[in-house]
Structure formats: structure tokens, C-alpha cells
Design goal:
The longest helix has 19 residues, at 5-23. A hairpin with a 2-residue loop joins strand 1 (31-35) and strand 2. This protein has helices at 5-23, 42-58, 87-91, 156-159, 167-174, 186-194, 208-220, 247-251, and strands at residues 31-35, 38-41, 63-66, 70-71, 77-85, 98-105, 108-116, 121-126, 131-133, 136-137, 150-153, 179-181, 200-204, 224-226, 238-242. Helix 1 (5-23) packs antiparallel against helix 2. The chain contains eight helices and 15 strands. The mean pLDDT is 96. Helix content is 31%, strand content 28%. The chain has an eight-stranded mixed beta sheet with strand order 4-3-5-6-7-8-9-10, with helices on both faces. Strands 12-11-13-15-14 form a five-stranded mixed beta sheet, covered by helices on one side. Strands 1-2 form a two-stranded antiparallel ribbon. The chain has two domains: 5-137, Fructose-1,6-Bisphosphatase, subunit A, domain 1 (Fructose-1,6-Bisphosphatase, Chain A, domain 1), CATH 3.30.540.10; 146-253, D-Maltodextrin-Binding Protein, domain 2, CATH 3.40.190.80. With 254 residues, the chain is α+β, with helices and mostly antiparallel strands. The structure holds D-MYO-inositol-1-phosphate and calcium ion (2 copies). The site of D-MYO-inositol-1-phosphate has 14 residues, from strand 5 and helix 4.
């Protein structure tokens, strides 16, 4: 069966129900630590197990790479999945977490979907066919003055106790902008750029499964995806998503 945004949404919404079932029963949620600052819950495992099985059943020609279960043989045409992006937020009962699913074929992102079940917000995009939120076309903001902008970031770098981290960059950019946010789900951060709710997002030391779907959604919404020097491309170790209007000014502070 060919992949379509509609068929993908049906599968991902079932995954959302699985996640919400555990989210609504947090007192019984099993939580373990992959490392001192990195959590995984039974919801992450259950959602990824469902998505791996359902995507293989509907689209047997594609491989799979999930954050929790790793890679199958076919990595040339693969689903790239973060079953719960924002696990720490999920475990604390906060609403800002998401399920991120992307289809990459021979290195090209073709489909991306980011679903926030607790907010019931579903973002998706198909290459060269636009970006959507809850079925409505979306686009990045028209803000072109960095001083008036709202930016979002994250601190994955602190998870690995990196010396070269995001703190000085954050202080520089925070003093040059009007609003700063740290929502806790990189996949959702990217969707907020695509929807014009924030004007730019950057983070370092992520993984491709955190950003693959969100990056396509930003690009299809008319935004840019670069590294911190402005090179176009999806670079998990250095991702900068923008509305295009503030990119030049922002790059001088990265
Ligand atoms: C995390 C979220 C968070 C980012 C972390 C990621 P996870 O994903 O995207 O916003 O700052 O670095 O690891 O671990 O909850 O899937
Ligand atoms: Ca993640
Ligand atoms: Ca995750």
C-alpha cells in the first residue's frame, strides 16, 4: 500500500491512544534510566513496539530505526521513530511530549508526522506538498526583526555533561530577543517554528529520530533547516530551524 498522510495518521493516532493510556495512569508508570539524565518509560517501549509492528504490516518494504529498539536491516528506505519525544515531561505529567515518525527514502525525507496526544495537535508534511496542523495548512512566522522574536532551544548537551554546551549561546541570544522558551520536546519545538508560534529553534547533540519529522515539517512550512553556520541540511548535532526572516541576524550570534 502506498504511504499517505491519511493512512499514517490512522496508525499514529492509535500509538497516541497507547501513550495516553499510560499517561493517564502515571502512578503505575514504570520509569528507568538509560543514563543519569536520560529516562525511558514503559510508554516509550509500548508505543515503539506498536509502531514497529504496524508500520511493518502496512508498509513491509521499509526498514525501521527506533530510539528504543534500534535499527532493522534496511536502512536505505526506513521509518525513523521517536516513540515519546519529551519522556521526562511525560513522566512528570506535563502535556508537552510527542510521537515523531518520519519516512526517509535513499537519504531524502519524504513524510513527517509529529503528534502531541495530550494536546491533540497533529502536525504532518509530505515532501513538496506542504505542512499541516490538524488538517490546516501552516507556515512559519513573518517576523524579520530578531529583537522582536521568540526563540526556543533545548539542552541535550547537558545530558552528556559537555563542556562545549549551549549555555553561553543561550545567554547571548536571550539578550537579543524578546521571548525565550524551553518546551522539552525537540520534535514539537520544530513544529512550533513551522506553525509560526516561535520564530526559531536550535539545539545541539540531538539524534536524527528527535528531528527528522519536525525538520521536514519546517521545510514544507517555508522555513529553513541549517547547522549553526547556515549550511542547509538536517544535522542532529547542530540543528537550527528558522522562519527565514531572522536567520541572518541569528547566525551572527550562534
Ligand atoms: C528529548 C527531547 C528534549 C531534548 C532532549 C531529547 P527524549 O527527547 O527532545 O527536548 O532537549 O535532548 O533527548 O529523550 O525525551 O526522546
Ligand atoms: Ca527524543
Ligand atoms: Ca524518546
Amino acid at each position: 500500500m502506498p504511504v499517505s498522510l491519511a493512512s499514517l495518521e490512522k496508525i499514529i493516532r492509535v500509538a497516541g491512544d497507547i501513550a495516553l493510556g499510560q499517561f493517564n495512569d502515571l502512578q503505575n508508570l514504570e520509569v528507568s534510566q538509560k543514563s543519569p539524565r536520560d529516562f525511558v518509560t514503559a510508554a516509550d517501549i509500548a508505543v515503539e513496539k506498536f509502531l514497529k509492528q504496524a508500520l511493518a504490516e502496512h508498509y513491509p518494504e521499509y526498514g525501521f530505526w527506533g530510539e528504543e529498539s534500534g535499527k532493522t536491516e534496511n536502512q536505505a528506505q526506513r521509518w525513523i521513530v521517536d516513540p515519546i519525544d519529551g519522556t521526562h515531561s511525560f513522566a512528570k505529567g506535563q502535556y508537552f511530549w510527542s510521537i515523531s515518525v518520519a519516512l526517509e527514502i535513499d537519504g531524502e525525507l519524504m513524510f513527517g508526522a509529529v503528534f502531541a496526544p495530550a494536546l491533540d495537535d497533529y502536525y504532518c508534511a509530505k515532501k513538496d506538498a506542504g505542512a499541516f496542523k490538524n488538517g490546516q495548512k501552516i507556515s512559519v512566522s513573518s517576523e524579520d526583526d530578531l529583537g522582536n522574536s521568540m526563540i526556543a532551544t533545548g539542552f541535550a548537551c547537558l545530558r552528556s555533561y559537555l563542556e562545549k554546551n549551549n549555555l553561553e549561546r543561550f545567554c547571548r541570544i536571550a539578550q537579543a530577543t524578546t521571548g525565550q522558551r524551553r518546551f522539552g520536546s525537540a520534535a514539537m519545538d520544530l513544529c512550533l517554528v513551522a506553525d509560526g508560534q516561535v520564530d526559531a529553534f536550535w539545539e545541539q547533540e540531538l539524534n536524527l529520530y528527535d528531528i527528522a519529522a519536525g525538520a521536514l515539517i519546517v521545510l514544507e512550512a517555508g522555513g529553513t533547516i541549517t547547522d549553526f553556520k547556515g549550511n542547509n541540511g538536517v544535522f542532529p548535532k547542530q540543528i537550527l530551524a528558522s522562519n527565514k526572516g531572522i536567520l541572518t541576524e541569528l547566525l551572527t550570534l550562534m
